[in-house]
Specification:
alpha/beta, Quinone Oxidoreductase, Chain A, domain 1, Rossmann fold, globular, about 350 residues
């Protein structure tokens, strides 16, 4: 066991504070990572504040982790000391179910082990990336290509793969009209990736405040959802809408923007239940769906895709003592577009 510094929430809704945690000794197939940068995801805030249900405390959030390998176990074959690597939202799964065998560990039928706010197979709680180091089985570590900085790569481990996976699954590409609902930490990456895949991209945002950014990042069109004319003008337009919004929506209004056989895919997860009139999907044979992160293979594919095209996250790097301030700014929508913690300041 090794003692390392970290930032943790001691209890639900409590401010995060500097503390120390224990990391396990490196096992046969483990990789020890010196964390360089950790992104702040809205999911961190949901879990620290128990918005998604009862949580485990003390909690060290962080599942957008980028760093450098400093030690490997004797059985490790894919990584070596000095490699640039990342860790995303999960650190283990059953590895034997149908989904795991298919590379869909995010949908492990027996439940995967999340990077934090979870209990591992050893019975110990998991602690995330707001820390100096982390120890992870090599099967849940990905390589960060040289074509992208570690700071810009960190948010790709959640925001990047969470948007890349549904865009690929629903075949975003040339000839497809894709709308991105919400222009935040996830939304701005969805715009970049959908554009790089060759789709015609429209941003649907509450206001036009970020229009210049949206067009710069690859959107072809930008509309304000606060304007009722938007829903009249865009009715029946899109093949795919990716919603990154973590608040309840009028799904009927957004489903009406889809073409026949179109899909509205949710990657944002509201804390409250939502309602739906089924005629919104029956008419037009439309799909209301959800998507989680990607599996490990797909996450590596996403990183390679982004590095080849220079698609890093738009970030604001902060010191660890500003984490609580950053949380409030995320809730206020005051970030363009992802806070990243310089973990050397922990």
């Amino acid at each position: 066991m090794t003692t390392v510094a970290a930032y943790a929430a001691p209890a639900a809704k409590a401010p995060l504070e500097r503390t120390t945690i224990e990391r396990r000794a490196v096992r046969e197939n483990d990789v020890l990572i010196d964390i360089k940068f950790a992104g702040i995801c809205h999911s961190d805030i949901h879990q620290v504040r128990e918005g998604w249900g009862e949580a485990i405390f003390p909690m060290v959030p962080g599942h957008e982790i980028a760093g450098v390998v400093t030690e490997v176990g004797p059985g490790v074959t894919r990584f070596a000391v000095g490699d640039r690597v990342g860790v995303g939202c999960m650190v283990d799964s059953c590895r034997t179910c149908e989904n795991c065998r298919a590379g869909l560990e995010q949908y492990c039928t027996r439940g995967n082990t999340m990077t934090y706010n979870a209990v591992g197979k050893d019975g110990e709680p998991t602690y995330g990336g707001y820390a100096q180091t982390i120890v992870v089985d090599e099967d849940f570590v990905v390589r960060i290509p040289e074509g992208i900085g570690l700071d810009e790569a960190a948010p790709l481990l959640c925001a990047g793969i969470t948007t890349y996976s549904p865009l690929k699954h629903w075949n975003a590409g040339p000839g497809k009209k894709v709308a991105v609902l919400g222009m935040g930490g996830l939304g701005h990456m969805a715009v970049k990736i959908a554009h790089a895949l060759g789709a015609e991209v429209t941003v649907l945002s509450q206001s036009l405040r970020k229009k210049d950014d949206g067009l710069r990042l690859g959107a072809d069109h930008y509309y304000a959802t606060s304007d009722p004319k938007t829903f009249e003008e865009l009715a029946g337009t899109f093949d795919l809408i990716v919603s990154t919004v973590s608040a309840p929506l009028d799904f009927g209004a957004y489903l009406a923007l889809l073409r026949t056989d179109g899909a509205l895919v949710n990657v944002g997860a509201p804390e409250e239940p939502v309602s739906l009139n089924l005629f919104s999907v029956i008419g037009g044979r439309k799909t209301l769906a959800g998507s989680s992160i990607g599996g490990i293979r797909e996450t590596q594919e996403m990183l390679d895709f982004c590095a080849e095209r220079g698609l890093g996250s738009e970030i604001e790097v902060i010191s660890a003592d500003r984490i609580n301030e950053a949380y409030e700014r995320v809730l206020a929508g005051d970030v363009r577009y992802r806070f990243v913690i310089d973990t050397s300041t922990i």
